[in-house]
Amino acid sequence: MLCSDSCWLLHQSMSSLMRSEHRPVTLLLVLLLSWSTNSVSAVGVNWGLASSTPLPPSKVVNGLLLSNGVTRVKLPDADPSVLESLSGSGIGVIVGIRNEMLRYLSQSKKAAASWVHDNVTRYFSDNRAGGGVQIEYIAVGDEPFLLSYGQQYQPYVIGAATNIHTALKAAKLSDRIKLIVPCSSDVYQTNSSLPSKAHFRPDLNKTMVDLLSFLSNHSSLFVLDMNPFSSFQQNKNLSLDFHLFQLTSRPLTDGHSKYDNYFDLSIDSVVSSLSKVGFGDMDIMVGSVGWPTDGASNATSANAQLFMQGLIDHLKAKTGSPLRPKRPPPETYLFTLLDENQLNITTGNYERHYGIFTFDGQAKYNVDLGQGSRPLKNVHEVDYLNQKWCVVNNNKDLYNITASVVQACSNADCSSLSSGGSCGGIGWPGNVSYAFNSYFQANGQSQESCDFNGLGLITTVDPSVGECRFVIGLHTSGSNKVRSLMADMPKKVFYSFFQSLVVLQQVVSVFIFASFFV
Ligand SMILES: *[C@@H]1O[C@H](CO)[C@@H](O)[C@H](O)[C@H]1NC(C)=O
Ligand SMILES: *[C@@H]1O[C@H](CO)[C@@H](O)[C@H](O)[C@H]1NC(C)=O
Ligand SMILES: *[C@@H]1O[C@H](CO)[C@@H](O)[C@H](O)[C@H]1NC(C)=O
Ligand SMILES: *[C@@H]1O[C@H](CO)[C@@H](O)[C@H](O)[C@H]1NC(C)=O
Ligand SMILES: *[C@@H]1O[C@H](CO)[C@@H](O)[C@H](O)[C@H]1NC(C)=O
Ligand SMILES: *[C@@H]1O[C@H](CO)[C@@H](O)[C@H](O)[C@H]1NC(C)=O
Ligand SMILES: *[C@@H]1O[C@H](CO)[C@@H](O)[C@H](O)[C@H]1NC(C)=O
Ligand SMILES: *[C@@H]1O[C@H](CO)[C@@H](O)[C@H](O)[C@H]1NC(C)=O
Ligand SMILES: *[C@@H]1O[C@H](CO)[C@@H](O)[C@H](O)[C@H]1NC(C)=O
Fold it and tell me: Where are the transmembrane segments (predicted)?
């Protein structure tokens, strides 16, 4: 067996440990080395809070991320409660900057400096054993080049990135934290789905060349956000099997390359686009990729499980893609951890149903997030509101009910009612009840939120029918948040202690193993 650099270092440190006068320091060094060689994983998850009743962040960190072996997360912004809950967890973090801030950050170095101070420096740590948040990347914008945004954000991306970089440099963090810009898959265009024909969108060509030059100057990488589900819906030529890693025959042929899945096709389309502007060797990270489970036909848990398992197996096999053999993306972030019922549904009702877990932290299907062959662990002791639902009162005259439904659905979430969705078949007035209940739960089950001009009725009988689940919301009040944070504290301390024990045990085994070579 060959000893890698870090293994050799580990051996050296172990030898010196036996002689050292400074054992605690050396032990710490060894612990760190061992930790980093054992926990490297190329898969992370996106985690957002766009939910009417989000789970408390500390519950997510302890009950979902750590308990399922998740080692990296990508955040849409820099929410203080999320960053605080990640402190000391050892989880690698991508902090996001929302598109709305790009213009301001590009116009003011001072604004960029305070963004870095408030949202990075305050939390930062690159020490897995200590406290602090292990911030590894800052995502400048969230798909700012999306075709439907037009020129709204495009002119400000590089300016914002440049100012943030300057601020990081002043904070002595520029060699620890890299800047990335997540790009939607419509940044490139192609003909007949062929990767070799792909090129960056003409309106974006110049900006893209500047961005790539910036990324290359700072040893960063290209970040692609994939959207296999919308590709499946739009691309009649590519089958469901092709998108779900299930294609066994008739691959798509492009010159000498053969493609049997959408993932490789997308990666190689970017490789080809990068080559055409002189950056053909740049690494490609996948910033988000997933499959929804509701809100449209073929958006089901069964399909999502096929997709996720196919993806994880493909990444583990490290085969890479035809244009990048044996060179899979260094990191891939699954979309997404939890359902978020406040996400924008302009592109489709399925957008709110990408969670591997439901909004209340229960796994919809199984996939290896880092927990190995064990089933996923759910969040326990979820702080639900009461066992109460709001339904339509069938004894009333319902002639004027449409206005109430519109009001409920525009504020709450009716995306499961769409055709092909889990509640798409419940009919009228069941779907009115669904809308009323959604609004009622999003408003903390307040009496007024089930009024609807006297047409609403509060019930303690679960109105769920078949697949169509009438949810109960979660407590999210400030006082509740504080209480649950306190409750989770001892568990977290215990967890860190337990992690140290595991690491110690690994070090001892490596040492015993290494002594055979002395
Ligand atoms: C820090 O990030 C938060 C959330 O993304 C944002 O609201 C806030 O304005 C940022 N702070 C500064 C100083 O820009
Ligand atoms: C796409 O490819 C076909 C055949 O290879 C070609 O005839 C056509 O002109 C191409 N279209 C574009 C927009 O490049
Ligand atoms: C779809 O496939 C047909 C036949 O294989 C091909 O002629 C056509 O160009 C393809 N269209 C797209 C949009 O890929
Ligand atoms: C990258 O570095 C080169 C050489 O130092 C420089 O000319 C170029 O302007 C830089 N690009 C960006 C976008 O900062
Ligand atoms: C895009 O930029 C590259 C590099 O500057 C250039 O070679 C290419 O012609 C440009 N393509 C278009 C469509 O403008
Ligand atoms: C998608 O779902 C619809 C409705 O269930 C079904 O008719 C169709 O065959 C599915 N599409 C594919 C490609 O399986
Ligand atoms: C949703 O996205 C669309 C298109 O990007 C945008 O026009 C609209 O304002 C967004 N809606 C909300 C509520 O943010
Ligand atoms: C119908 O509902 C709307 C909105 O709730 C309300 O403003 C209006 O007065 C109602 N019309 C009648 C005739 O009850
Ligand atoms: C409820 O179902 C009726 C009948 O199928 C349909 O006309 C109506 O649009 C549905 N409403 C919603 C909000 O889905």
Answer: 493-517
